[in-house]
Amino acid sequence: MAKIKAEPFAFPVRHDQLALIVIDMQRDFAEPGGFGASLGNDVSRITRIVPDVKRLIQGFRNAGLPVIHTMECHKPDLSDLPPAKRDRGSPILRIGDEGPMGRILISGEPGTAILPELAPAEGEVIIEKPGKGAFYNTELSEVLQQRGIKQLVFAGVTTEVCVQTTMREANDRGYQCLLAEEATESYFPEFKAATIAMIRAQGAIVGWTAHVDDILESITNA
Ligand code: TIU
What we know:
alpha/beta
């Protein structure tokens, strides 16, 4: 069995069942004037991981392995936005409000788009998700089942919010999960570190963590 160097122990990879899932690398989380900034965060932390996310995506594409992208966003009529989610953050700019990049986190708006450097390629699956977890209220389960995907490499933002939530959802559904350490980021460095630690604690209770170079080496030699 092929293995990827990982923590807390080597990840038993099946390249024929493996996909990359890139969580929410959207302008709204990475650029001034978007949702992340409206919550008071330093969004420059997010842009710094773009090169590592990009080479991970490129490695999967070169190996002919699936790349799945998610986007956190809501319908223009806000029918999928519960008040418990909308009534968070800055009272000036909430989800659905008009901002400098269009309506915050609304499907089809400029600010909701994936960063141009990481834009999905022709034929890659894009999951629009109204929650933090990518399985909640989306077609992700069906997409994975149809393609025979059972192992997921995770990249994207933010580590402790949408990435971790999706990893936990995936783990409960029977997927083996591997988080690419340099290809994920939080607005809070201590939360990223804590998430990495808690995911792989207790014998990979939620999943494994690995370096981008080690993941790329494995899929390049697949
Ligand atoms: N605020 C924050 O850290 N994250 C989010 O709101 N969404 C995602 O993580 N995608």
